[in-house]
Each structure stands twice: as C-alpha cells, then as structure tokens.
UniProtKB/TrEMBL annotation:
GO cellular component: cytoplasm
Example of a GO biological process term: regulation of translational initiation
Annotated Impact N-terminal domain residues: 22-127
Protein name: Impact N-terminal domain-containing protein
Assigned protein family: Belongs to the IMPACT family.
Alphabetical list of SUPFAM superfamilies matching this protein: Ribosomal protein S5 domain 2-like
Domain of life: Bacteria
Pfam families found in the cross-reference section: Impact_N (PF01205)
PANTHER family, sorted: IMPACT FAMILY MEMBER YIGZ, IMPACT-RELATED
C-alpha cells in the first residue's frame, strides 16, 4: 500500500457564519494555521473584535503526518463546545485549521444537547463555506555544491520540475528544494550519485 502524501486544508478565511438558537448568537470563524503561535494570534484578534461576547470556544488541528490538536470549551459545560467543533474538523478531514465559535448569550439556557448542536452546526457551516483544497506532503532537501557544478544540478531541477524554495548561488552554492513525498527518494538518489554534490534532508 502506498503512503498517503496529500492532505486537505484551507488557504484563506471565508466570512464568518452566524447560527442562532433561542436568542443566542454563534459566530463561526475558520482560519488557516500552521503553528500554535498562529492559533494564539487569531484568538487574540477575535477576542478584541468580540470583547463583549460570553464564550470563544475553539478547536484546531495541526500537522500532516504527526497530528497535534486541541479542543477548548472556554467555560461552557465539559465537552459541549470544543469537541463538537473538533468533530467537524475530523469529519471534513482537514488539517492546519482553527475553528472558533464566538457565543453571545441570549438569556435562555440551551442545555448541553442544545449547545453541542449549536457548536457542531456552526463549525459545519464554517467548513461548508470554506474553499477546501488538497495539498501534497513534501520533503525539503538542501543541495550543496561548487559553482562549477551548477549545470548538473539545474538540469535535474528543470527536468524533474522541482520547486526551489531558497537559493544561494555564489562560489559555494546552496539550493533548497521541495519534493513531493512519494518522489523524494528517487530524486534524492539522482543528486546523491552525482560527484561533488551533497544533498541532505531538512524535514
């Protein structure tokens, strides 16, 4: 069985969605995130924007092969907010996303079942509104070589249509390339067998 080397995510945040139940308002936001710092920054921004809201419940998932996730009820009854939001992230099979549901209390208690439904539905609406895209899981490699070997290296990069992330072309040259995971070992061997050219895996 071949290893999966694609994942689903979003690149941009759509407009927030609104779900209402018994006068309570639930605003659903979704953000593309890559690190916990991104998560923190997005939450801080929303808390400033909705400073009079009662709850900012959220869930996020990071990573493609090693997964990190967190679900937060932010003062709502245990497992009535964060986990229903996270359940939708799993259901849509997306990663590197943060969903925040901002609640304005409408004066009528919804009960745990009502809350679970409200948070789950708001997260679902936010995901439905998102442009979900498929990306490849890539490995990055650093190629080091002398300037005189430039043509050999560039020929392979061109032939194999490799993505250059970074390059330093001086007497000592360094090029960082990104290769789709399933092709990574083949490309690695192509460079590795070249005389005077060094290739190392970065991630």
């Amino acid at each position: 069985m071949s290893q999966k080397d694609t994942y689903k995510t979003i690149d941009t945040s759509p407009e927030p969605v609104l779900f209402k139940d018994k006068n309570s308002k639930f605003y659903g936001y979704i953000f593309p995130v890559k690190t916990e710092e991104n998560v923190k920054a997005s939450l801080e921004k929303l808390k400033k924007e909705h400073h009079s809201a009662r709850h900012w419940c959220y869930a996020y998932q990071l990573g493609t092969e090693t997964i990190t996730y967190r679900a937060n009820d932010d003062g709502e009854p245990s497992n009535s907010a964060g986990m229903p939001i996270y359940g939708q992230i799993q259901s849509f099979e997306v990663t590197n996303v943060l969903i925040v549901v901002v609640r304005y209390f409408g004066g009528v208690k919804l009960g745990v079942g009502g809350l679970i439904n409200a948070y789950k539905t708001t997260a679902q609406l936010a995901l439905n509104d998102s442009d979900i895209i498929e990306k490849t899981i890539n490995n990055d490699f650093l190629i080091s070589f002398d300037y005189k070997n430039m043509n050999k290296v560039m020929r392979i990069i061109k032939e194999k249509r490799l993505t250059i992330i970074n390059q330093k072309l001086e007497l000592d040259c360094q090029i960082t390339i990104s290769i789709r995971k399933k092709d990574a070992m083949d490309i690695f061997h192509l460079f590795d067998q070249l005389y005077e050219i060094n290739i190392t895996k970065i991630n």
